[in-house]
Amino acid sequence: MNYKDLILDIGLERYKHSLRVMDTALELGKIYKTNLENIKIASIYHDCGKIGSTEEVLKITDRRNIKLSKEDLKSPEVVHTILGRYLAEHKYNIKDEDILNAIEFHTTGRPKMSLLEKIIYIADYTEPNRDFSGVEKVREASKKDIDNSMILALKNTIDYLKSKDIHIHKNTLDAYNYFIEIKGVII
Ligand code: DGI
Ligand code: FE
Ligand code: FE
């Protein structure tokens, strides 16, 4: 695989972040026994839409006529995931729906996420260079119970966004409500 175009778009540092996400995601993939090739592709390309600043991402999205929801417009930091899904499909020729969803929902999460989506979300949150408060708890939980680690990561994210008075994307809230609900259900 040649990642020249990707590195030109997102820069070497973000590419290295994506490689760390890949290592972390592969570890999780082995624990939860899922398709490692899909994990590799989703990890490498998860931030392929993060081209420059948030303003640049919005400009490119507009130029390419990519539709954004009202929620997306209120959460501009999330728009790189929408652009990412578009570029993954149209520039990097990724057609696998599960991989495209993992790219689209890697920042907010969503209800009923697939295992691949959860692994990419958590690996992005816990890759070795992440050092925000609470990350170690998420890291440990992710190796035992990925749904539990989703609750911890979503809760941290919501608390962080609240502390800064930043709009919480509906997908983030819906994902949190979904995971606490399935945890509460005794089957
Ligand atoms: O792209 P990365 O830096 O690797 O990480 P990411 O895709 O998780 O993006 C993190 C950014 O997204 C950070 O600035 C917080 C922001 N974010 C996450 N969830 C939400 C959000 N921003 C808004 N407005 N609403 C959310 O629900
Ligand atoms: Fe991202
Ligand atoms: Fe990332």
Describe the structure.
With 187 residues, the chain is an all-alpha fold. The protein has one domain (4-183): Hypothetical protein af1432 (Orthogonal Bundle), CATH 1.10.3210. The protein is 68% helix and 0% strand. The protein is built from eleven helices and no strands. The protein has helices spanning 4-10, 12-31, 36-45, 54-63, 70-74, 79-90, 97-104, 115-126, 135-144, 146-163, 170-184. Residues 17, 21, 46-47, 124 line the site of one fe (iii) ion (FE).
Key words describing this protein structure:
Hypothetical protein af1432, 187 residues, binds 2'-deoxyguanosine-5'-diphosphate
Shape descriptor: globular
Order of helices and strands: HHHHHHHHHHH
Number of helices: 11
Strand content: under 5%
Work out the helicity level. 55-70%
Number of domains: 1
Identify the CATH class.
Mainly Alpha
CATH architectural arrangement = Orthogonal Bundle
| CATH T-level topology | Hypothetical protein af1432
Residue-averaged pLDDT, rounded?
97
**Unreliable residue runs:** none
The end-to-end span amounts to: 44 Å
CATH H level, superfamily name:
Hypothetical protein af1432
Bound molecules: 2'-deoxyguanosine-5'-diphosphate, fe (iii) ion
